[in-house]
Amino acid sequence: MKANELSPVRKSILPQSGDRWENIAQRELPGTAEGDAVAMLQSWNLHVFMRSAGGVGRLRSDNPILPSDVIFVEPPRA
Amino acid sequence: MYDLVIRNGRVVDGSGMPAFNADIAVQDGRIAKIGRVAEAGRREIDATAKVVAPGFIDPHTHFDAQLLWDGYAKPALSHGVTTVVAGNCSLSLAPLKAEHRMKLVGMFNQIEEMPLKAFKEGVVWDWESFPEYLARIQKGLAINVGQLVGHSVLRLWVMGEAAMERTANQQEIADMQKLLRECLDAGAIGLSTSYVDMDETLKPVPSRYADADEVDALASVLSEYGRILQIVPEFYDPDLTIARLDQLAELSIKYAIPTTFSPLFVSADNVGAVERVMARVDEQFARGARVWPQVQTRPIDISFSFAVPSLLFIRLPGWYNVMRFGTQDEIIEAFSNPESRAKLVAEASSQMALWSFLRLRHVASEANQQYVGKTLAEIGEMRGVSPLDAMIDLSVEERLDAHFIAENMGHNLDDKVGGLLKHPRVHIGASDGGAHILSFSTYGDTGYLFGHFVRNQGLLTLEESVKKITSDTAAIWGIPDRGLLQKGLVADIVVFDADAIDRGVEVYVQDVPGDGSRYIRDAHGVDTVIVGGGVAWSATEGYTSDARGAILPPAIDPALERIAA
Fold it and tell me: Domains in chain B, ordered, with CATH?
């Protein structure tokens, strides 16, 4: 089996240096208004977004994205 | 005359082939003969009606600290485990500069629930480098140890406090590569990293600040040695787990290295998710990747008292913060003060079903003994309060020395778990031996495999189960000369009764340095455990002084390796 023969799975990216929600929104969802795209990304990535909202695991309040995070750029597949 | 002869055993040699009757002779620590042995042995073991198998290998433990005061990794060795892999989940105790010791102790305390006092009173900090640590634990070592290098400690060594703040620059990555090579030269079995864990301040551990380039660079070093990468993915979410195993697969193929992720649990509400993950594992193996999921045998039981933080409360921030950061008096005050108690009750009320089925397992006072063994629902009814209030009241009355257990929290669907354990691309492991010592016993998973899944459920054969926890594990991890009963291999051997082997009941013991306690399980049906040709434990003698544990793989001579290359 080759890589391009793998079954499709939920699309994700790894952050680039300095990535914030806005950067990722512009790069991965270029056809969507930035505010809407950021909201969508946050809703698809609660494992990252909730860090800044909750007490547990809280870190840099202005950017919860870690360099090692998986960021989904589409909703869960049915 | 041989050093040791095991006679009349039913040999299950670890290959998966059918059992056969034979004697085994041991000389100079290695298996000298398998067949009919006419010569006598200086020591002879009668294995009539018993199974003779290779020593079991436990690939996912956190014995790093315990090995400093207990070279037997008790009671793991008595269960037939002759080799443990420590240093999982990005945490090892070396390489570690003196100024980072307490930071790492904090992480072990938070992530692996190991008591601070045990580190303070059980550890003499006389090492910094990886070879120094190995030399330290090798004194009196009775069990074999494969020692992973923790990614978080590599970062701490190279980057200091910045390891917990940012990505590494090119020079720092190069320094980490150099340090990893030094560890691998000294005998490290691989590298571990984590994508989920938090430190004692509830911030992500250093490995989570690494970007993909850093992990790639470290994997390239593993490739030079053919060594394994172990990760903890976001195991609570199948999409995240699949994304991580895809990452691993790319590294495995690019660098021709084995990789493993742990844990993979199955529960009633995620059967489909596990099937999705396994379908992806199968595809990635078909591509030529090695991405071994680790599956534990035992169901999830979690014990706790409010005297120490419990990960059972990690999704209840108010409760967890009280447990994590409060003193005994502060926790009792939080439970007693009407205002703070009301907040805690409100936060926990969404999980009322959980509190109802928790069972009280231990209290100190005579007055509350009547409740031991009952569920909180039953106790609440007796007292005329809610189950949650019963838990809080008992904890206050006992000054936090009230212990509760949540049984069968998951991973308890026998046919599904058995199917996973049998799967050719599943790696049996994830015991967490030596960690979470006040949450559950991490000992006896091998006994449970044989007692529950082989003998009671009939879901695996004896031969395939032995293979899974011996030769398969040795092959996946590149552990030399072990995992099979073959002439010339090291004599790590366990003799057990296939009709009796099992784990005992979970018991609370006080044998941790610093007056600490833990939950353990004794071994049932294990007769003799042999490490490096010497009897390390037997049912009649207990632990012996014949300590022949080794570091696996042995240190290599880098000069020779480079000449050979």
Answer: 56-299+410-479 (3.20.20.140), 302-406 (no CATH)
The pTM for the full model equals 0.93
The yes/no answer to whether this complex scores an ipTM above 0.90 is yes
The CB-based long-range contact list for A24-31 (8 Å cut-off, 24+ gap) reads A24/A65, A24/A71, A24/A73, A28/A73, A29/A73
How would DSSP label each residue in B166-195?
S---HHHHHHHHHHHHHHHHHT--EEEEES
Distance, in Å, from the CA atom of B470 to the CA atom of B452, rounded to the nearest integer, reads 18
**Tens digit of each residue's pLDDT (9 = 90 or more) over B119-169:** 888 899 999 999 999 999 999 999 999 999 999 999 999 999 999 999 999
- Enumerate residue ranges in chain B where pLDDT < 70: 557-565
Give the closest residue to B327 by CA, choosing from B313, B308, B312, B311.
B308
Residue indicated by tokens 């099979």: B484
**How would you write B458-479 as a 3-class SS string?**
CCCCHHHHHHHCCHHHHHHHCC
**A76 contact residues in B (CB cutoff 8 A):** 239
Give the DSSP letter of residue A56.
T
pLDDT of residue B560: 45
CA distances from B414 to B32, B74, B504, B526 (A): 40, 28, 19, 24
pLDDT, residue B109, reads 87
Residue A60: pLDDT over 60 = no
Q: What is the pLDDT of residues B493-502, one digit of tens each?
A: 999 999 999 9
Partner-chain residue, chosen from B211, B287, B315, that has the shortest CB–CB distance to A1: B287
Residues of B within 8 A of A15 (CB-CB) are 211
Check A70 against B243: CB less than 8 A apart: yes
Q: Are B298 and B424 within 8 A, CB to CB?
A: no
